[in-house]
Write the structure tokens for this entry.
Amino acid sequence: EQDVSMSYKEFSTRAARRSALLTLRVLERLSALRTSVVAS
């Protein structure tokens, strides 16, 4: 039971880190698009 909870915690933290990286990447792309639109 303890191993299951540990693996679940590890999995959730890994998933949270991955989603955070994806969100940052999307925000960077959006800001780049905004600056390119403003520049043109």
The chain has a mean pLDDT of 91. The chain has one domain: 1-40.
